[in-house]
Please model this.
Amino acid sequence: MARTPTDKALLKRAQAGDRRAFDLLIQPYYGKIFGHCLRSCRDASMAEDCTQETFLKAWKGLSRFRGDSSLLHWLRVIASNVISTAYRKMPNWIHTDDMELFLEAENQYPEVEMDLDNAMKKLPKGARKVFWLYSVLGFGHREIAKHLGTAEGTSKAQLFRARKLLAGMFS
Model:
């Protein structure tokens, strides 16, 4: 729904292809959408990119906006989809080699290094990635879930599994 009669007129003009009307219509929402993106991405550059992509998609899809919900809600849905897509397209950059380099640099005890290295290699791939992201890199479950394209609960379950398996290997 448009907020005022002026917004309704701007919406009609924008849906007819008037770019200036669209700019005026969305201007009050820019900060809110950027804030939404920033809270989700936790990276200003990525949030800016997602915000721009959101408004580009809104412009291209404006003819499909029926006004059943508020314009802000519609924009937030678009932004959430843009953010999800951005995270899915991110390269899956967690590799065993990276873990080995970390373990070599951080561990001064070769026998523990070897044991931990071997134990990490024995973990299932998903559990290993989540364990690495959470325990070594300090990511939260929400960030891990977005990065790996899974549910937050899956991240928690994988971490629990990794810890349990590692504890079993060292007991």
